[in-house]
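Appendix B, record 7
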Amino acid sequence: MFRRTFWFTAGAAAGVWATTKVNRKLKQLTPESLAAQAADKAIETGHKLKDFALDVREGMVRREAELGGALGLEAPVEDLPVQRHYAVEAPEAAAHPNTYRTLPYKSNNRNEDH
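Structure tokens (predicted):
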């Protein structure tokens, strides 16, 4: 009698445990939960990249100071003039707004010259 009661209780407890685990996993796999997990991972990755970039920048400044000391350069990096480079040059049409080029007219009508 006690043996049957024990196994019945053990089976019921295992069923409750398994049902709870499955329901938790199903809630984790809903679209809202997956979106929240992805956003959390993206934020975490952004923080790691920012920390890495700051570490690299700190190392660069330290190494530049070491090299400047070794070469006898006394100017700190912050006091050097900044040279600006533009990725795209201004086209001549933008430099002279009253002038523009026209392309030769080309008709797309195939029946025109036949």
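Remarks on this record: Residues 31-71 form the longest helix (41 residues). The mean pLDDT is 80.
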